[in-house]
Amino acid sequence: MALSGIEIYKLLPKTNCKDCEFPTCLAFAMKLATKQVELSACPHVSEESQSLLAASSEPPIRLVSLKSDGYEVKAGNEVVLFRHEKTFYNMPGLFIRVTDEMTSEQIQKKLKPAEEYLVNYVGIDLAVDGYAIESTSNDPTKFKSAVESVRSVSKKPIVLICKDPKVIRAGLDVLEGESPLIYAADESNWEEMGEIAKNANAPLVVSSPNIDSIAEITEKLKDFGVLNLVLDPANRDLSTSLMQFTQIRRLAIKKDFRPLGYPVIAFPCHAPSPETESIQAAQAITKYAGFIVLETFSPEALYALLVLRQNIYTDPQKPIQVQPGIYEINDPKPEDPVLVTTNFSITYFSVANEVEGSGQPAWLLVSEAEGMSVLTAWAAGNFDAERIAKDVKRFEIADKVTNKQIVLPGHVSVLSGELEEELPDWDVRVGPREAVDLPAFLKQAL
After folding, report:
1. Is 445 a residue whose pLDDT tops 70?
2. In the prediction, which pLDDT does 30 show?
3. Is the pLDDT of residue 203 over 80?
């Protein structure tokens, strides 16, 4: 049973040492009661209190990891219902599905493009997370062969899909030392599937169209010693799955209902068309899947899903940043100008894309501004003449250019005089306010 903040406070050292980065032990206790911090943040709590506080310190949704040779996909550990309340932590893994009735050549033909797919979005590499292998033949030999074919293409984590324990065992024989996701236990086979998952040290999906039945099975499996579980409400239409996924998440977080405190898996792969599959996958990313199985590998559709996922699972209090430094656009020469911007990713890519599209060569100085846009960083004191001058020297830009012409964003033209004092041997210019006006500015003003 969850403890209140006051009950937790009574078990803490009460020294107000601030080592947990909170001003008082009471403040830390209140945060711990709402699952917003971990007990490990307090280095002085006694072993006795640790055992008593273990349940209260656990996130309402258990962390489940799929592991393979050098790869890991995590789901769970979420503490809020809505992203703006804090943040979402572990973005859902996207898995491409094959079946054991496909030949080895068909499997490799489908998965090789998916395995090679890698796209850079605002400085972040996006890719497929793993593969799902479903036994449609119910033949252990065919299933084992399909797993081997997938492993010949990729080392990424795997989801094994079949409710026949004999078939699952055959697939696991190929994945020794890994932690694949096993699908699935239900009312008829939970004990045998639980034994398999326990022996393989692998997470197990619990599947039922009824949420009450899911809760009953998870409790049985927990008593059986299987702790890493994933839930499948087994309804595939948009409205019902949305309702059930939300209900599971709400009960786990708002009511601290432990039998449903596990990640959820979604199967857009069963959609009647690729378009519907993309819609279902997008819904699953936002509400509230931990693992998502797709049928279609389409670079354009996958890109949209990966970008959506990245945006939903970006901490709203920590904007996406690019690495500060000097960037070369269109192979600049020493006589070309130096443009200045901040390291907020959207600002950087807006400027870089406009300059690149113009065909005009330029050096782009990305200054450290804690991931803020130009105006926001200037207002917060994180983007000023002193910082810009320090970055000019830090990145040794004077050694790369001969004209020493530096261009400030138009929104911070007020910094031009100060920057001239900081960089007396540089020609300080003021550029346009908007990135879209940079091509014309570069052609006409410089």
Report:
1. no
2. 86
3. yes
Residue owning tokens 């599905």: 97
- What is the pLDDT averaged over residues 374-390? 94
Domain of residue 102, CATH code: 3.20.20.20
Instruction: Give the Cβ contact number of residue 301 at 10 Å.
Output: 17
Q: Map residue 110 onto helix, strand or coil.
A: helix
H helix or E strand, kind and range, residue 286? helix 274-286
Q: How far apart are CA 172 and CA 90, in angstroms?
A: 25
321-345: buried (b, 16+ CB within 10 Å) or exposed (e) per residue? bbebebbebeebeeebbbbbbbbbb
User: Please, are residues 132 and 293 in contact by the beta-carbon 8 Å criterion?
Assistant: yes
Residue 420 in any domain: the answer is yes
Whether 218 and 291 map to the same domain: the answer is yes
The string of pLDDT tens digits covering residues 313-349 is: 988 877 788 889 999 999 999 999 999 999 998 899 9
DSSP three-state, residue 293: strand
Q: What is the pLDDT of residue 228?
A: 97
* Dist. CA 198–CA 286, nearest whole Å: 31
Using a cut of 0.70, tell me whether the model's pTM lies above it: yes
User: CA 146 to CA 171: how far, in whole Å?
Assistant: 8
Exposed e or buried b per residue across 251-264, where buried means at least 16 C-beta atoms within 10 angstroms of its C-beta: bbbeeeebbbbbbb
| Average confidence (pLDDT) over 229-236 | 96
Q: Which of 312, 342, 366 is the last residue of a domain?
A: 312
Residue 22: how many other CB atoms lie within 10 Å: 19
Give me the DSSP letters along 29-74: HHHHHTTSS-GGG-TT--HHHHHHHHHHHS-SS--EEEEETTEEEE
Q: The tokens 């979604």 sit on which residue?
A: 266
Of the candidates 190, 134, 202, the one whose C-alpha atom is nearest the C-alpha of residue 167 is 134
91 and 50 share one domain: no
- pLDDT tens for 124-168 read 899 999 999 999 999 999 999 999 999 999 999 999 999 999 999
Nearest to 217 by CA among 197, 231, 238: 231
pLDDT digits (tens, 9 = 90+) for 394-434: 999 999 999 899 999 999 999 999 999 999 999 999 999 99
Domain that holds residue 397: 325-444
Distance of CA 385 to the CA centre of its chain: 35
Nearest C-alpha neighbor of 220 from the set 193, 199, 201, 238: 193
Contact in structure between 218 and 243 (CB atoms under 8 Å) = no
User: pLDDT for 247-257, tens place per residue?
Assistant: 999 999 999 89
pLDDT at res. 120: 86
